Give the backbone structure.
Amino acid sequence: MANILKEWLTLQLLTASFVVFFGSGLGWAHSKQEITIPANNAVLEEAPTELVLQFDKPMRITKLVLTNQSGKNFEVRRTDQMKHIRKLFVQLDPVPNGEYQVIWRGLSEDGHPMKGTFSFVVK
């Protein structure tokens, strides 16, 4: 009986150690893009007047480009002043029908570079 109790306590100690050493790293995970508006691969009847990027943790967006299938860039108006934010709102002038890609780069709060893209179509 004593051996069973000893083995059980050892297993509990190993489990707790695993959680402490490996689970604590979860708090340092990089930011990730959670939501975009328009949604990735959305097909829209009207051109959007705004883009929204939402992250699970604060992110400083260092580059944001809206481009069409021909490679033409369109102006985006930011108001975040490149501060760390969880949600970025970007105003757009109307864009013609076509396929678009939003390309972003940024720095998570822990200083790691991040990047991402999402696309949409205006019919």
About this structure: Residues 2-23 form the longest helix (22 residues).
